[in-house]
Specification:
It is a single chain. It is built from 8 helices and 7 strands; from the N terminus they run αβααββααββββααα. By secondary structure, the chain is α+β, with helices and mostly antiparallel strands. The protein has one domain. The strands form 2 sheets. It has a 4-stranded antiparallel beta sheet.
């Protein structure tokens, strides 16, 4: 996350509107955290442990400096231990009573609400499940499971820099539908612009995912 924040901050193409790093810091062995989570019924796979970062959260909100390129991005992503503690406010997202059981099992991973979109990425911590499901919630499009684990979520944040709607590339949704017009345009702009400014990242897989959903 630090690398992503630094890359956006240093690029003249981006204007950072908000940046914050939560409490914590490097140097602490997280083994005790993982042991406690396991004792509480949430054992983690080694690949998820490797994705742990030693700050409670890291947040960034940016826009482009070019007024002709309407592109925005944000994240306020928690480490996996902090996420397991922050439960979703169910009543804010349950459109139907039948949704409440699932929503009550979700914890907040990434709060994407500073820009006004009302979006959240969440994890579904269930007893003795070593790799929680990732669910994406959008006040305008209800909620959908993502084809990602926690580590893959962070890996794709590195690539997308948190561009609005990038999570839908990993959801079973029809991005060609009219209701996704603004998200689709955001993703198309991302795939045109970011490869130019961040050539060390691979964007072809994301382009293929967008094409498959149109």
């Amino acid at each position: 996350m630090s690398r992503t924040i630094c890359e956006v901050r240093k690029s003249p193409f981006f204007d950072v509107m908000y940046e914050e790093v939560g409490p914590g810091g490097p140097g602490k062995d997280p083994s005790a955290i993982f042991e406690l989570m396991a004792e509480e019924g949430f054992p983690l796979t080694e690949r998820l442990k490797e994705a742990y970062f030693p700050y409670r959260y890291k947040a960034l909100h940016w826009c482009t400096t070019d007024p002709n390129v309407p592109l925005f991005g944000e994240f306020n992503v928690m480490n996996i231990d902090a996420s397991s503690e922050v439960r979703l406010p169910v009543k804010d997202f349950a459109w139907e009573e039948s949704d409440e059981k699932l929503l009550s099992e979700l914890s907040i991973l990434d709060d994407i609400s500073r820009g006004g979109g009302g979006q959240l990425a969440t994890m579904r911590f269930l007893p003795n499940v070593s790799s929680p499901d990732i669910w994406f919630l959008d006040r305008f499009h209800t909620f959908v499971k993502l084809d990602l684990d926690y580590r893959e979520y962070l890996d794709n944040l590195f690539v997308t820099k948190g561009v609005t709607g990038w999570q839908y590339l990993f959801a079973d949704v029809p991005l060609g539908a009219r209701e996704y017009d603004s998200i689709r345009e955001s993703l198309k702009t991302m795939l045109q612009v970011l490869p130019e400014h961040f050539p060390n990242y691979e964007y072809a897989p994301l382009a293929a995912r967008l094409e498959a959903r149109l």
